[in-house]
Amino acid sequence: MFKKSKNKAKAVRIDTLIGQNTQIRGDLNFSGGLRIDGKVVGNITTSDNTSGVLTLGEQGSIEGEIRVPNLIINGRINGNVFVSDHVELASKAKVNGNVYYRLLEMMVGSEVNGQLIKMTAENNDILNLENEVIEESDTFKLEQKANLD
User: Fold this and answer.
1) Is residue 148 situated within a structural domain?
2) Which residue segment(s) compose the domain that 80 sits in?
């Protein structure tokens, strides 16, 4: 008669916390769980390709590319998002960029200004969390030439 519910919400483990009054400039690589309530300007990746979870709190913001297996958003992101497993857009989530995903959960009030792109077997390579690092010396630079006329 009184059965316990088997569908319990899975608790998100947080190994690292970036507090509300913290601002970080530079790329981050984490393992386990990372919660951001502050501001990060840089790309975020994980060394845990299967169970890593990035949680962006309501006051948090990220400017850069994100490549993680699991993502919970309730803050602001300016940049493309690549999620190899599950992405949850909470009611105050704002994403300016494309979201590449396998499984999407979107609450009323969340906003994506970009494309929602579901990954399939044919285009799965784009979600590969291992990406090539480009050295600054290898990038091309544009130069302004003076008009000779």
Assistant:
1) no
2) 16-120
Total of domains in the chain: 1
- Considering only residues 1 and 37, tell me which one the structure prediction assigns the higher pLDDT: 37
Report the chain's mean pLDDT, rounded to a whole number: 82
**Which is higher by pLDDT, 142 or 91?**
91
Q: What is the pTM of this model?
A: 0.76
Q: Do residues 96 and 81 lie in contact, with contact meaning Cβ atoms separated by under 8 Å?
A: no
Does residue 140 fall inside a structural domain?
no
Residue 109 lies in a domain: yes
- What's 104-120 look like in SS3? EEECCCCEEECCEEECC
Q: Report CA torsion sign: 83, 98, 18, 29.
A: positive
Q: Is 66 exposed, middle or buried (0-12, 13-18, 19+ CB in 10 A)?
A: buried
In a domain, 129, yes or no: no
